[in-house]
Amino acid sequence: MRIVILGSGRVGSHLANALVNKGHTIVVVDDKDRKFKSLEDHPDIHRIHGNIFDEKISDQACTEKVDKFVVVTGNDNINVMVAQAIQKKYQIQEVYIRIFDPDLADVYRMLGFEIICPTNYTISEFMKLLGPKK
Length: 134
Prior knowledge:
Blueprint: E1 2-6, H1 10-20, E2 25-30, E3 45-49, H2 55-61, E4 68-71, H3 76-90, E5 94-98, H4 102-110, E6 114-116, H5 118-130
Parallel strand pairs: 1-2, 1-4, 2-3, 4-5, 5-6
């Protein structure tokens, strides 16, 4: 499976490394070249340095059929804008977005995007640890 990941920070890099070890072909796009340092040196991890809003960069990332597109930059607004634009332009059916804002996450989940909201997950885990009210 060919998976494009936008963002090569902690999540993007670790996700790319884990997915390539499961046999997937990974394309990682980031506008900061230094962020690629955490990626494994693997022939099936392809690095693209540049801004995804640059048509040359997005075309390079999506030149072949993309099965899944994952957006994990540190900015919710960028994540949402990129996800919508890339999904429409390249007709990618499965787009996954990390969104920190729980309200924004709910809106985009209702619009059909697959959303990961670390804020909701963190709250849920703390509630389990802190237990019920006495």
